[in-house]
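As a warm-up, study this chain.
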Amino acid sequence: MTEEPIHRDPGGTESHDPKFPAALLAFMRQGWRDSALPVVPRPAAPHHATRRAALSAALPGETLVIPTGGEQVRANDTAHRFRPGSDFAYLTGDYEPDSVLVLRPTGSGHEPLLYLRPHASRQTDEFFRSRHGELWLGRRPTLAEKSSELGMPTADLADLDAALADLAPARTRVLRGFDARVDAALRPYDGRRERGQPPRDQELASAISELRLVKDEWEIAQLQDAVDATVRGFEDVARVLPADRGVSERLLEGIFALRARHDGNDIGYGSIVGAGEHATILHWVHNHGTTRPGDLLLMDMGVENDHLYTADVTRVLPVSGRFTALQRQIYDIVYAAQQAGIEFIRPGVAFKEVHLTCMRVLAEGLAELGLLPVSVDEAMDERSAVYRRWTLHGFGHMLGIDVHDCANSRSAAYRDGTLGEGYVLTVEPGLYFQPEDELVPEELRGIGVRIEDDVLVTANGTVNLSAGLPRTAGDVETWLAEQREAGPRLPG
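Now compare it with the structure written out below.
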């Protein structure tokens, strides 16, 4: 990291900031060339306009305020890399911090206005001495440049407070929790809250979330792009995974992260790299263990592409190159459950029925292993569900611009609803035998297997977007040998 700016903010409030002498201030205000950016309209702009129109139709006659949020502090005066709010990005295609989309009702729908921090004149001190100074952060587009890029009207963020003060609370809905400035300016119309939000505002969040359930052609292409990069990332990891000695989980995490940053925006979520018994910990993100020959390695990883759509894929590899008989038996049960779920999916199928389809296969496998204390039918009864001791989680979730996409949807449209054409979801059953579980034979303890793929619902069934990675035990062994034979590579 370069040395901190000498002007962290105009008041020089950072303890390590030297003061600006008057002569330096005067010298810094002159002699700068101000060139235009080479701006072209974004190809996706019509898709974003279509989504705004759909939201307008869902909530007619009301002003809708959707912020993206700002940078989050990582440590003192350093920030995490900014990632825009998903709903905001879905509706605008803009990825800069602090912006706010306001949709004002008209006689025929809504008129969008995007408030953002515009390019600063080189004649102002902001250019070189503020927290948002372009000398430190790079050239920002002008309002006109951003408008041409996104295909929508723009306004200076400095005018937002006055615009918000002019809104009628009874006819305004706000996507809350992203921008404290917006939340404070637009107090909830009534005091009741639902899921942490006033009901009217929750209805806005739910409306956007439910629009996101169906992916358009452009979104499906983005998801495929993210999945393809993820496949390459898994290949990169397999190529450096030794069969005869241990390596750190963090090495493998880093290899995948290199691919994610090179081929996309970032990882879509914290990578899970679980060697041996760590595979039984669902959200193992410490990744401070070491692989061992003879053990299994579970990796749950996904690339987030440049338009913020993410893959979510899990594979289990035998470190030595071949599954033992017991490892293969467990793997085959999970594979059969996943295959049953994928084959069951089609438009009109209930989300819960996909879950039960996968879980019944797992329960039958647990019965064959002699682990269930009751019959399969009794175990599947919702008053029992004892099989879940070893399955732990559901069959999957929606996928898109969030790894757990559409989470603000109403239960009737998601968990208690049916699948539709254009939905994208994961199918990821698993079996996990904890090292401390005394109800399973010792040889099973510490084995964890999950297989996860990203599935598009089509008119006639499904397309497995992540079919570029093998799923059967035999194909995994063959693929791993091929990757090792090919040897390490750098992204390029």
